[in-house]
């Protein structure tokens, strides 16, 4: 593998947390963890025309977010394949939204979802690239 060495600055607490995790899980290769984290970050944020399948995982406050949340899903109806809804407690809900579209479209949808008031978390997992 062709590698390049980088020097990065991180908050001390984050490094301590990482070191503790590596120790507890007997992981010796810090570079591997950064590679995985960066790959996930780029998958979630890179924009291109590759058609992909993925899952958007959203946790939201039903009272605050429901209307906007549904409107946005209707706007993207031809990108959404299926949705699973779970009631977490009296107010909070989780949805796993299976999606298909270009990486750009799905990154934009995830970004819009995460900006809705009452949405606590929205993550896009790219599962498969159509080639
Ligand atoms: Ni619910």
TrEMBL record:
The cofactor note reads: Binds 1 nickel ion per subunit.
One Gene Ontology MF term: DNA binding
Binding annotation for Ni(2+): 74, 85, 87, 93
Instruction: Tell me the InterPro entries matching this sequence.
Output: Acetolactate_synth/TF_NikR_C, ACT-like_dom_sf, Arc_rbn_hlx_hlx, CopG/NikR_regulator, Ni_resp_reg_NikR, Ribbon_hlx_hlx, TF_NikR_Ni-bd_C
What CDD domains has UniProt attached to this entry? Answer: RHH_NikR_HicB-like
Statement: the UniProt record of this protein carries the keyword DNA-binding: yes
Entry's Pfam families? Answer: NikR_C
Q: Which cofactor does it need?
A: Ni(2+)
Presence of keyword Magnesium: no
Where is the Transcription factor NikR nickel binding C-terminal domain positioned along the sequence? 54-125
Biological process terms from the Gene Ontology for this record are: response to nickel cation
The family this protein is said to belong to: Belongs to the transcriptional regulatory CopG/NikR family.
Protein name, per record: Putative nickel-responsive regulator
Biological source species: Candidatus Aramenus sulfurataquae
């Amino acid at each position: 593998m062709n590698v390049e060495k980088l020097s990065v600055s991180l908050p001390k607490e984050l490094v301590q947390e990482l070191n503790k995790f590596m120790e507890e899980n007997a992981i010796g290769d810090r570079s591997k963890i950064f590679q995985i984290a960066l790959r996930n970050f780029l998958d979630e944020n890179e924009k291109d025309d590759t058609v992909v399948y993925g899952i958007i995982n959203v946790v939201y406050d039903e009272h605050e977010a429901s209307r906007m949340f549904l409107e946005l899903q209707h706007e993207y109806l031809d990108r959404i394949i299926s949705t699973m809804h779970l009631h977490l407690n009296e107010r909070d809900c989780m949805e796993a939204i299976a999606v298909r579209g270009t990486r750009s479209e799905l990154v934009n949808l995830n970004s819009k979802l995460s900006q809705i008031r009452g949405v606590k978390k929205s993550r896009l997992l790219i599962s498969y690239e159509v080639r």
